[in-house]
Amino acid sequence: MMPIRATKNAVVAVSYTLLVDDGETGFRWYETVTDTDPFYFLFGHHNILPKLEEALEGKSVGDSFAITIGFENGYGDYDPAKKVIIPKANFKEEGKKNRDLLRIGNVIPMQDDKGNQMRGEVLKVDYMGVHLDFNSPLAGLDLQFEGKIVSIREALPEEVDHGHVHGPDGQHTH
Ligand SMILES: [Zn+2]
Predict the structure, then answer these.
(1) Ligand 1: distance of its center to the CA of 27 in Å?
(2) Which secondary structure element, helix H or strand E, spans residue 55, and what is its range?
(3) Could you count the other beta carbons within 10 Å of the beta carbon of residue 74?
(4) pLDDT (average), residues 17-27
(5) 80-133 architecture in CATH?
(6) CA of 31 to the centre of ligand 1 (A)
(7) How far is the CA of 160 from the centre of ligand 1 (A)?
(8) Are 72 and 136 in contact (CB under 8 A)?
(9) pTM for this one?
(10) How far away, in angstroms, is 92 Cα from ligand 1 center?
(11) N or C terminus: fewer CB in 10 A for the chain?
(12) What backbone phi and psi angles, to 5 degrees, belong to 171?
């Protein structure tokens, strides 16, 4: 028996710590994903950054990884054009203000006129409208991942079909 490895159509779970560097202050902590609540993804289906996937390829459970990924291979440059002001009326529900929705820091899922899904963070609300930032929170940042492989299993046919994981056991369907 060969140990199952991280390769196309495997469901891989990883734990990691992510440090980020804006190019000015050096690397600082951003996020930790623990062994007990790892991140699951379907290998080989563009579900994670290609450079990170490369660093994981061929590894087996218990193996560790460490990789630094420049912003250009991460979430790209910060784009000031992705900061937009949208009229307040667009956020009214049944003609009423929705203060909860427009809390500063809230991330609102939206759709552009071509039907593309995007997420905008509320920066502020003033007389001009709702100021939203559609940049990824990781835009413009160099990334440093350090972690290990927590588990690997073969994907179910349905998961391969959909191109994504259906939860830790493949049971969560959608
Ligand atoms: Zn699905």
Answers:
(1) 35
(2) helix 50-56
(3) 20
(4) 95
(5) Beta Barrel (2.40)
(6) 26
(7) 9
(8) no
(9) 0.83
(10) 32
(11) N
(12) -90, -25
